[in-house]
Design a protein that fits this description.
Elements: H1 3-68, H2 71-83, H3 89-103, H4 105-110, E1 112-118, E2 125-128, H5 142-147, E3 152-159, E4 164-174, E5 180-188, H6 190-198, E6 208-213, H7 237-243, E7 248-253, E8 259-267, E9 272-279, H8 280-283, H9 285-331, H10 346-420, H11 427-455, E10 464-467, H12 468-478, H13 480-486, E11 489-492, E12 496-500, H14 502-518, E13 526-534, E14 537-544, H15 576-586, E15 591-595, E16 601-608, E17 614-616
Parallel strand pairs: 11-13
Antiparallel strand pairs: 1-2, 1-5, 3-4, 4-5, 6-9, 7-8, 8-9, 10-12, 12-17, 13-14, 14-16, 15-16
Helix pairs in contact: 1-9, 9-10, 10-11, 12-14, 14-15
């Protein structure tokens, strides 16, 4: 092999080999570090979720026990049960009054969607916030049997009568002498539990925490599933190990068939498995980017080194060829030709060329060191930014939790204070206590609304094909009670299928329909929903016959906490339309209003027509 080939190959090996070895070592160390950090984060998240689950269940039992020990339940309610026949109109009237004054106010504050009272012999429901449940017999249910002796939490089960997953908490109702008079029970709103498990504690978009019962069925909704609770089973490696009452971590495929890092734990007191996972692709994304950068850097240096070797080889061989010619000429007796041989001859030129090569090689190595330092600096900057964002999000979560818990305690204990010292307080004191309870409840609602507003852009689901007509029908089902109470008439024309976040689209529709019902005029509400295609967008219209809005306030209604009426006239926090606007803008649309006082209101908003958007639904 000639020198012109050996030198480029030699420089290629000298430059590329160390870089490849160092890159491989750095990649493996980085990968192991990411694995360790991610697993530690998942364990921390598991501990946090477990604490939140325990706190959530304790809160439910505490609210129910507070209700069971109120002055009315211990002193007046026993006389009500003993004094008349449940079939008599007067008893039914008093039962309705009891539901309205004592059961229904505890629904939202306690996180229940139904509260009911069962007589102690056969478990027949005699009072309930859900009129369809009255008269049903529950003597076979564990929450009835166990609830007669103490507070009891029945694990998640599928209720045939309700047609959905349920968790029931029960506690005995006793008179002031300690005698059992009935059993008080409440069905817990499990959507709160899914929300608790679904809250991310980091910027990892695929972080997923969910609960699984001992029969391998989802108890809460995973972030990549909908309607899975007690309907879809799961048999991943993490779930199977957790159901064997083991706790640990592993690398396996999740319920989607996607490779994940997972942490699993068995919770014996609730007979549930808690699983926290994150996609391996997302976890390894930083180190994979470093690997690609290192590979490109290695290729660039290899090309530069080969070019330098080729140039150096030519610089050496040409002077040597000229020196050979001079030597041949001398061999032939050509003594006239001047030969420059010493410092200014071919050997001197070779020495200078070698020194030049040394300088160029030194510059090359210095450039590589500068580039390596710049890569490390940028990695450190990105890590600091990611850590800051993570700390900011965790602060927002902790702050909201720390705000809501004291507010709930203020409301609960203020009500308990009013009930316990009812005969010792004057009218002003009762009024002030009422103001305190109302203020705490309103503040809790404002905190929840602000969190909901802040999560629209950061906690939304990926866009997917969404049938707007089906979304509207689901919303109307949720608002069925309000529609019946107000006699509202809702007319829905055919609506399109669009690319959207179906959950946020449901919030958008519900806010607009609920506002039309709430701000009704003298006649029953009439709401007309339609959509038309205009250029590259769909234009949706929600028209009602309500009280209308003065044109000078049209922009103000979309500003957070801006109210056009006194709080006593219409309930609400003044943030619903701000959420509506933010949802529309996240979907790339715009929203505006056309209205005048006393002439109803029309809300318009647009959604882009994308490639996968289909025409109007058949209804």
């Amino acid at each position: 092999m000639t020198l012109s080939k050996k030198l480029p190959l030699f420089f290629l090996l000298i430059a590329a080999a160390p870089l490849l070895v160092m890159g491989f070592i750095a990649f493996e160390n980085g990968r192991h570090t990411i694995q360790k950090q991610t697993i530690n984060h998942l364990f921390s998240t598991d501990i946090l979720k477990k604490a939140e689950l325990d706190g959530w269940l304790s809160e439910k039992t505490r609210h129910l026990e507070i209700l069971a020990n109120t002055h009315f339940m211990r002193t007046e309610f026993p006389f009500m049960l003993a004094g008349s026949n449940p079939n008599e109109p007067i008893w039914q009237a008093r039962a309705q009054e009891t539901e309205n004054l004592y059961l229904k106010p505890f629904l939202h504050g306690g996180g229940y969607f139904e509260l009911f009272v069962m007589e102690p012999k056969k478990g027949r429901i005699i009072l309930s916030t859900d009129k369809t449940q009255k008269g049903k017999i529950k003597h076979y249910q564990a929450f009835f049997r166990e609830g007669k002796t103490g507070t009891y939490i029945q694990n998640v089960y599928y209720s045939m009568s309700l047609g959905k997953p349920a968790m029931t908490v029960s506690t005995p109702l006793k008179d002031k002498d300690g005698n059992l008079i009935a059993v008080l029970a409440g069905r817990v709103d499990l959507s709160e539990l899914s929300d608790i498990m679904g809250r991310r504690s980091s910027l990892l978009k695929t972080e997923d925490t969910y609960l699984v019962n001992k029969f391998n069925f989802f108890v809460t909704e995973p972030i990549f599933g909908k309607g899975f609770a007690l309907k879809k089973s799961i048999h991943t490696e993490g779930v199977l190990l957790a159901l064997k009452q083991e706790s640990g971590h592993g690398f396996y495929e999740d319920y989607r068939g996607v490779p994940v890092m997972g942490v699993y734990e068995w919770i014996p007191e609730w007979e549930l498995a808690m699983i926290t996972e994150v996609d391996q692709n997302e976890a390894y994304a930083p180190i994979m980017g470093f690997r690609n950068t290192t590979a490109l850097l290695c290729l660039a240096i290899a090309c530069l080194a080969s070019g330098l070797g080729l140039l150096l080889a030519r610089t050496i061989t040409r002077p040597l060829a000229r020196l050979t010619d001079f030597a041949k000429a001398m061999g032939k007796g050509d003594l006239e030709t001047e030969i420059i041989f010493s410092d200014k001859g071919e050997i001197g030129n070779l020495a200078k060329t070698l020194d030049q090569m040394r300088s160029e090689l030194k510059e090359s190595l210095v450039s590589r060191a500068d580039l390596t330092r710049e890569v490390q600096r940028r990695k450190a900057t990105m890590a600091d930014l990611e850590r800051s964002n993570k700390e900011l999000e965790q602060f927002a979560y902790v702050a909201s939790h720390d705000l809501q818990e004291p507010l709930r305690m203020v409301a609960s204990y203020t009500q308990l204070l009013a009930q316990r010292y009812e005969n010792q307080l004057d009218e002003k004191a009762h009024k002030f206590i009422g103001y305190a309870v109302e203020g705490a409840t309103r503040m809790q609602g404002l905190v929840n609304d602000l969190l909901q507003l802040s999560r629209i852009g950061t906690r939304g689901n990926p866009f997917e094909e969404t049938d707007c007509h089906k979304v509207v029908q689901s919303v109307l089902k949720d608002l069925e009670r309000s529609i019946e109470e107000t006699g509202a008439q809702i007319q829905v024309e055919p609506l399109p299928t669009v690319m959207a976040d179906s959950t946020q689209l449901g919030m958008l529709f519900q806010n607009l329909i609920a506002n039309a019902i709430k701000f009704k005029g003298d006649s029953p509400p009439q709401v007309h929903i339609s959509a038309r295609q205009s250029d590259k967008e769909w234009v949706f219209q929600f028209r009602d016959n309500g009280i209308g809005i003065d044109p000078k306030y049209h922009e103000r209604v979309f500003v957070i906490f801006q109210r056009l009426h006194e709080r006593g006239q219409y309930e609400g926090s003044g943030i619903g339309l701000a959420i509506t606007k933010k949802i529309v803008e996240r979907h790339g649309g715009r929203i505006w209003i056309e209205s005048a006082e006393g002439k109803g209101t029309s809300f318009f908003f647009t959604l882009p027509i994308l490639n996968t958007t289909r025409s109007l639904s058949d209804g």
